[in-house]
C-alpha cells in the first residue's frame, strides 16, 4: 500500500489483484468501517460480494451511525456527523454508492448538490445569559501566551506529546479562550484528553480555524446518518451479494504467530447463544473492528434517566482477548478502562409544541421548517454548568418524522455537574429534566418551563460510557497498526486502529480510511490511498 498525493490516482480504476478470485472475507462488525471495507474489497480488490460475510452482534447495521424510531421512546440520534471537503477517503467511497434519493446520482452527488444549494453557515455559534448573544463570539480571543502554546503544540513531535493531557501542554490563557470553547465543543475534547490527538487535530483541521465561529467549512447530510449514509451503502453491498449475519457476537480470533509471520486461523462466535465459528485459511481474510465508542449505550426516556452501564463490554473484551496474544495487537485498557473520563451523555429532543421551534428560530435566526439548514452545527451555551451544546439540523431529520415536529440533538461535556436550572447532573436526569435545562438556556421564561417541558417535548437521553475512549492519552503501540507487521490475512479497522501517517480520530473519514488501508494492503491494490 502507498499513499497518493494530489488527484492523479483519484480517478484510476485499479486492475484486479492477483488471487482475488480465491479470496473469502469476513468482517467483524457492521459499523462504517466494516461496511466501507467490504465496499473497497469489491470495488478495488476485485473480490466477489458473495464471498464476503459481515458479522454483527446487534440486529441492525451502522454502528455509531444511527438514527432510529425506537418503539415506546421515539426518535433517537446518539450523535451527529460533521463533514468537510477534505474527507478524501469518505468521498472516494461514496462516489461509487448510488443515492437512494436521486436517480442516476451517487451519494456524493446528492451530498454535493445539497450543500451547494444550501451552504452551511452558523449565525449564532454560542449564547449566554439564557439565550442572549455573546458580543465577542466572532473572535478566537487568543492572547500572546495562548498563541505561543498553540504554536508549540503544533510544532512539537509526536513523541513529545505522547501520554500527555491537553491541560499539561496548554495554559489557562488558552483554556479560557473562545478558540478552546469552540474547538472542544465541536470535537468533544476534555482537558484531560490526549495532547497528541489535539496536535493531530490541529494539523488535520488547520483550514477550519478561520471558520470556527461560523462553521462555514462544514457540510451535513439531508437526514440522519443512518438514512443518509448507512442505508445506501448497505443496499449497494446487498445488491452485490454480501451476506449480513446479525445476532452474531464474535468472542475471539485465533492466530498462528511465527517469527515474521502472523496468520488468523479461526473466528469464534456466539450466534443467539450458540457457540460456533469458522476456520480460516491463508486466502480467508478477516477485518476486525476493535473497541467501540457506543458500546453499552443506554437510552432513557422522557420520564427515565439513561443508565451508566459499566458491565461486560463484548467489543472491548474481544480486543482484550486478541491483545493478550501479541504485543503488536495493542493495549485496549489504555482506552476502555476509564469510564469516568470517557463518558458523556446526549439527548434526542422531539419538540411537539410550536412554542419551542419559535425559541430556536429566535436564536438561530432561521425558521426550522423550511427544509434548509437551521443552526448549521452546534450552538454552545458558554455559561452552562454542563457545558451543553445543541443543534437543529435540516428538518425533517427522519423521513417518517411528522411535518409539525422538530428534532434537536443535545449533548454535554460535564455530565456529572449540577445544572443551572435543574440542580442535578445530566447523567441523573430524565428526558423531561434535560428539556427543562435546554429551555432555560433557550430563554424560555422560568414560569413556563415546567409545563412546556412536560407536555411540549419528548426527549430520549442516552448515556455512552466509551464515547471519547479514543481521546485518552496514549503512546505508540497502544493502538495496533491497521495491518500489523507480518500479518498475512487479517487487519484491524475502525477508530482504534493506527493509521500512522495520516488523519485523526472521531471522524467518518477515519472509519473509512482504516479499512481502505487494510484492503489495499492485504490485496496489494495498485492504486494509492488518499
Overview of the molecule:
- The chain has 17 helices and 18 strands.
- The protein has about 525 residues and is α/β, with parallel strands linked by helices.
- It folds into three domains: about 20-85 and about 225-330 and about 490-520, FAD/NAD(P)-binding domain; about 120-125 and about 345-465, D-Amino Acid Oxidase, Chain A, domain 2 (2-Layer Sandwich); about 140-210, no CATH class.
- The strands form four sheets. It has an eight-stranded mixed beta sheet, sandwiched between helices.
- Helix 1 packs parallel to helix 10 (about 225-240), helix 2 (about 90-95) crosses helix 17 (about 510-520) and helix 15 (about 430-440) packs across helix 16.
- The radius of gyration is 23 Å and the shape is globular.
- It starts with about 25 loop residues before the first strand and ends in an 8-residue tail after the last helix.
- The mean pLDDT is about 95.
Number of helices: 17
Low-confidence region ranges: none
What value does the average pLDDT take? Answer: 97
Number of domains: 3
What's the N-to-C terminus distance?
11 Å
CATH topology of the largest domain: FAD/NAD(P)-binding domain
Q: CATH superfamily membership of the largest domain, which one?
A: FAD/NAD(P)-binding domain
Short description:
The protein is α/β, with parallel strands linked by helices.
Question: Which key features would you list for this structure?
Answer:
18% strand; 3 domains; FAD/NAD(P)-binding domain; D-Amino Acid Oxidase, Chain A, domain 2; alpha/beta; 5-stranded parallel β-sheet; 530 residues
Amino acid at each position: 500500500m502507498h499513499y497518493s498525493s494530489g488527484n492523479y490516482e483519484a480517478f484510476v480504476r485499479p486492475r484486479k489483484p492477483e488471487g482475488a478470485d480465491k479470496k473469502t472475507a469476513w468482517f467483524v462488525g457492521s459499523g462504517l468501517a466494516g461496511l466501507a471495507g467490504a465496499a473497497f474489497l469489491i470495488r478495488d480488490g476485485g473480490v466477489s460480494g458473495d464471498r464476503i460475510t459481515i458479522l454483527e452482534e446487534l440486529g441492525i447495521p451502522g454502528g455509531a451511525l444511527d438514527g432510529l424510531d425506537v418503539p415506546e421512546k421515539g426518535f433517537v440520534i446518539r450523535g451527529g456527523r460533521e463533514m468537510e471537503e477534505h474527507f478524501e477517503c469518505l468521498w472516494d467511497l461514496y462516489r461509487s454508492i448510488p443515492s437512494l434519493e436521486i436517480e442516476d446520482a451517487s451519494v456524493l452527488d446528492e451530498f454535493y448538490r445539497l450543500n451547494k444549494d444550501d451552504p452551511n453557515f452558523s449565525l449564532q455559534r454560542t449564547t449566554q445569559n439564557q439565550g442572549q448573544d455573546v458580543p465577542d463570539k466572532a473572535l478566537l480571543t487568543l492572547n500572546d501566551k495562548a498563541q505561543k502554546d498553540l504554536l508549540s503544540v503544533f510544532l512539537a513531535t509526536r513523541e513529545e506529546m505522547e501520554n500527555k493531557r491537553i491541560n499539561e501542554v496548554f495554559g489557562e490563557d488558552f483554556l479560557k479562550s473562545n478558540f478552546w470553547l469552540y474547538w472542544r465543543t465541536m470535537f468533544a475534547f476534555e482537558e484531560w484528553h490526549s495532547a497528541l490527538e489535539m496536535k493531530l487535530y490541529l494539523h488535520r483541521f488547520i483550514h477550519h480555524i478561520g471558520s470556527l465561529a461560523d462553521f462555514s467549512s462544514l457540510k451535513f447530510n439531508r437526514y440522519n446518518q443512518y438514512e443518509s449514509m448507512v442505508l445506501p451503502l448497505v443496499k449497494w453491498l446487498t445488491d452485490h451479494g454480501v451476506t449480513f449475519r446479525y445476532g452474531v457476537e464474535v468472542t475471539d480470533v485465533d492466530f498462528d504467530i511465527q517469527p515474521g509471520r502472523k496468520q488468523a486461523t479461526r473466528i469464534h462466535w456466539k450466534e443467539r447463544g450458540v457457540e460456533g465459528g469458522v476456520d480460516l485459511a491463508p486466502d480467508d481474510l478477516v477485518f476486525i473492528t476493535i473497541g467501540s465508542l457506543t458500546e453499552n449505550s443506554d437510552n432513557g426516556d422522557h420520564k427515565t434517566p439513561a443508565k451508566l452501564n459499566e458491565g461486560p463490554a463484548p467489543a472491548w473484551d474481544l480486543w482484550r482477548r486478541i491483545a493478550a496474544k501479541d504485543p503488536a495487537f495493542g493495549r485496549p485498557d489504555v482506552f476502555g478502562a476509564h469510564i469516568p473520563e470517557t463518558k458523556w451523555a446526549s439527548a434526542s429532543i422531539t419538540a411537539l409544541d410550536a412554542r419551542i421551534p419559535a425559541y430556536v428560530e429566535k436564536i438561530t435566526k432561521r425558521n426550522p421548517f423550511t427544509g434548509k439548514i437551521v443552526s448549521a452545527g452546534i450552538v454552545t451555551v458558554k455559561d452552562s454548568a454542563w457545558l451543553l451544546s445543541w443543534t437543529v439540523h435540516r428538518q425533517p431529520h427522519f423521513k417518517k418524522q411528522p411535518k409539525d415536529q422538530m428534532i434537536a440533538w443535545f449533548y454535554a461535556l460535564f455530565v456529572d455537574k449540577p445544572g443551572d436550572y435543574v440542580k442535578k447532573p445530566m447523567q441523573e436526569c430524565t428526558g423531561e429534566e434535560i428539556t427543562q435545562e435546554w429551555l432555560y438556556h433557550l430563554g424560555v421564561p422560568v414560569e413556563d418551563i415546567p409545563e412546556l417541558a412536560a407536555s411540549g417535548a419528548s426527549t430520549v437521553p442516552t448515556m455512552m460510557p466509551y464515547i471519547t475512549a479514543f481521546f485518552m492519552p496514549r503512546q505508540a503501540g497502544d493502538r495496533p497498526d491497521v495491518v500489523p507487521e507480518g500479518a498475512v490475512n487479517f487487519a484491524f479497522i475502525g477508530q482504534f486502529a493506527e493509521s500512522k501517517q495520516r488523519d485523526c480520530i472521531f471522524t467518518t473519514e477515519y472509519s473509512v480510511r482504516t479499512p481502505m488501508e487494510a484492503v489495499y494492503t492485504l490485496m496489494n491494490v495498485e492504486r494509492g490511498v488518499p
